[in-house]
Amino acid sequence: MANIKQFRIVVMGRANAGKTTILQRICNTTDNPEITDGKGNKVFEAKCFQRGHHNIEHELVFSSNPGFVFHDSCGFEAGSVGQFDEMKNFVLDRAVTGSLKKRIHAIWFCIPMTDYHRMVTAAEQKFFNECDTGHVPVIVLLTKTDALHLAAMEELLDSGLDLGEAKKKAAEKEKELLERWLAHIKGILDKCKFPPKAYVSVQKMHEEGADCMALVQCTTNAVNEEGLQRLLISTWQSGIALCVEYAVKK
């Protein structure tokens, strides 16, 4: 553990799943990350942030918190076999590499609620059926949950409520819908050969100062290795409450 100075996370999921926004909130910044090729050579950022040009080998580091290193995969749409194999080989290699500094410690798999009508895609099921990440936990993040507000309002209005009553009950209905879709996603992914280790919803990530406690806490518990738990909690610079809770438990 003394040789590991950075907590390394692979972020994957569909395009426009809000991945970059989540990374910015975790690192408490609105700036774009510096992108290097893993050997310290800076990569032209604009090209890397264009859809379809992500290279999972590249390292994303935010100057506000260089203790985190992120790897961003291509969007999980109907990606080519070559792209999938490249991602799979990277994950499997970095999960067990002899270079401790290069090992990945967690995987965040993002599923946006803007696409709740199509929920789990074939490409996503393929990942959980073919990618054995070993000791590296995969955490499913339900992102853009604010998008459920419209669905909640539609259900309430269709039930016969007027607009005023529907607005009053919208928050409760959104929570109900989120729980329903989460149960549906778990019902599918938990049957896969290599199911996720945990699930967590992240909310209001588009707002500066959004609360990332649930995500960091979920990841800490999923890692389940004391040295890496300490590294994650100490790296996340907004987690005094989590530090106290962790210390009390230990």
TrEMBL record:
It comes from the Eukaryota. This is G domain-containing protein. InterPro entries: P-loop_NTPase. It comes from Pisolithus microcarpus 441.
